[in-house]
Sequence to fold (257 residues):
Amino acid sequence: MVTYRRRMDAVFRALADPTRRALLDALFAEDGQSLSSLEERFDITRFGVMKHLRILEEAGLVVTRRRGREKLHFLNPVPIRLVHDRWVSKYAEPWVAGLSDLKSRLESSMEKVFEIYIRTTPERLWQAITDPEIRAKYNFGVRPRTDWTPGSRYDMWAPAAGLVLGEGENVEVDPPRRLVQTMTALWSDEVRGEGISRITWEIEQVADSCRLTVTHDQLREGANEELYGGWPMILSGLKTWLETGELLTTPGSLMYT
Fold:
């Protein structure tokens, strides 16, 4: 509980500064920017931009990826989603969900990166990702069906709805550290038309917790936001279940249960 409060404190401190909020707005408008690209948007020194980005990274609101010689910065909405689930959803979920949908419709990117810290072990986290019964608890009631071998096929089965919502190939299976999958969404004609994208799960132990990074890439420019818009809710549900044993009951979490 103390660790959770510290993380929330870091999020609120990071959001309190207008320059840091402007940096998040810049990444919201165009994800995956380099330091040089972000620096051009502000009337402060390069060092100042770096300092603000470091605070956002420490709060988990920004994650970075190396691309050749460049370090790219990505907006990570998961901590904000956790704030929403704790204090907002039970009072104003219908209105907030509508605004969240509007935000998603305005956003497009070739790559989405989500990062979250969970107080658990790599083995238990891997099990939560791959075990069908556990996965259904936080992934909209959907269960993966596969033997989890490299090169094998999988699908995402929603028994309550009688639907297969997605399918693909397990490209890389390295428990309990890394899982790479292709994915074709099947829940509507619109998302089916987007074709194949890729999802990478990366688990790294950090003291008594794990850092989970989910990268959803190989998306076309302007891809349908339904392909990646559910990740903050899924990861928030995963963290909640592993740390407390409780289930999130937001409308999206109950969609196919």
Q: What stands out?
A: The chain is about 40% helix and 25% strand. The CA atoms of residues 133 and 180 lie 20 Å apart.
